[in-house]
Design goal:
Number of helices: 6
CATH architecture of the largest domain: 3 Solenoid
Strand order of the largest sheet: 13-16-19-22-25-28-33-36
Strand content: 25-35%
CATH topology of the largest domain: UDP N-Acetylglucosamine Acyltransferase, domain 1
Number of domains: 3
Structural class: alpha/beta
Shape: globular
Oligomer: single chain
Number of strands: 39
Radius of gyration: 22 Å
Largest sheet: 8 strands, parallel
Distance between the termini: 52 Å
Length: 356
């Protein structure tokens, strides 16, 4: 079941404030209502412009309730009712699927599919995560290359910049950098969108990502396939892959398939795990445990929560908003007295215990 409150994303708080690519959900919905005023979008649902254009064409034939076609977002909708758009009455009619497999990318043993036309209901933090990740390739494509006639001009410019027709080199030459962006000469930034005032420091790697206004990636950090909100910060030597870091959050650990709420802080050495050694990850939805989409899922750190140094959190968990989580005091070596003859020891209760 979805949360009772219609305007809340479970685990994160008010839906309007959540991050979707380079804007908040509120901005995305306002833009849709302005550009497609005749299309009804279900409360809590966000749809791509391509889906809204397709809905406009289908609605000319009569009132319909439209749901996303194909299987692109089926794993996301498994956590709640499918999203829909169109007229409130009329029989459901699926949007025409326009799916493409991502070459070489599989999740849970199945190929990942993306589509221009998508609609996703954002009632749970996992839905927000997968909505961002599955829609990110199309968002980046539109932002970097656009549609005709911009497509050919921008692609040609990237080819000239790369001095090659090889896909990997052309991809490395693509990107969007707004005014005020700073990228250190030793940093690697490929196929990414950097909004006004974003900064990438020395030795950092940013690939296939969105950096919101004023976002910062510090020295030697890695950001891949991730979305950073305005003022978010990935700190020195941290790694954030396939994740969402909302506005004002600061991350210094290791994370994959996770979400950091606005203003959350994760300290260096913290690890937010995304897989189990055996079996699929399960996640709590409306008080019940359900299989996570694609069988894997990271951790949600609620807004303004703090995860301290050295904390390891199992997959599928939620750190409630405003909570501070500290590591066990006994796991910190504070008394360095080595037992006689000891060659191998472990930390226990702040001291050393001999193993050999």
């Amino acid at each position: 079941m979805l949360p009772a409150a219609p305007d809340v994303v479970e685990g994160l708080g008010p839906r309007a404030e959540r991050q979707l690519f380079d804007q908040t959900v509120e901005v995305w919905r306002a833009r849709s209502q302005k550009d497609f005023p005749e299309i009804l979008v279900e409360p809590g649902t966000v749809a791509s412009a391509s889906a809204l254009r397709a809905a406009r064409q289908l609605l000319r034939a009569g009132p319909r309730r439209l749901v996303p076609g194909g299987s692109t977002f089926a794993p996301v909708h498994a956590l709640g009712a499918p999203a829909w758009l169109g007229q409130a009455d009329g029989a459901p009619e699926p949007l025409p699927p326009d799916e493409r497999e991502v070459p070489g990318l599989q999740l849970g043993g199945a190929p990942v599919r993306i589509a221009d036309a998508w609609a996703v209901h954002l009632g749970h933090w996992s839905q927000l995560l997968w909505g961002n990740l599955l829609g990110l390739p199309v968002f980046l494509f539109d932002a970097m290359l656009g549609r005709n006639p911009l497509f050919f001009w921008r692609l040609g410019r990237a080819i000239l910049r790369a001095r090659s027709f090889r896909a990997e080199r052309v991809g490395a030459a693509l990107g969007v950098r707004e005014p005020g962006v700073e990228v250190h000469p030793s940093a690697t930034v490929e196929a990414s969108v950097l909004r006004r005032g974003a900064r990438v420091h020395a030795g950092a790697v940013v690939r296939g990502a969105v950096l919101g206004e004023g976002a910062v990636v510090e020295e030697l950090a890695m950001v891949e396939g991730a979305v950073l909100g305005a003022g978010a910060r990935v700190q020195r030597m941290a790694m954030a892959k396939y994740s969402v870091i909302e506005s004002g959050a600061a991350f210094a650990g290791i994370m994959q398939l996770g979400v950091l709420g606005a203003g959350a802080v994760v300290k260096q050495g913290a690890i937010l795990m995304d897989m189990r050694l055996e079996g699929d990850v399960r996640v709590e939805v409306g008080g019940t445990l359900r299989p996570a989409p694609f069988g894997m899922l990271g951790v949600c750190v609620g807004p303004r929560a703090v995860v301290a140094q050295g904390v390891r959190i199992a997959p599928g968990r939620v750190v409630p908003a405003g909570l501070t989580v500290l590591s066990e005091a006994g796991s910190v070596l504070s008394r360095l007295t080595v037992p006689e003859g000891c060659r191998v020891a472990r930390v226990k209760d702040g001291g050393l215990e001999s193993l050999k």
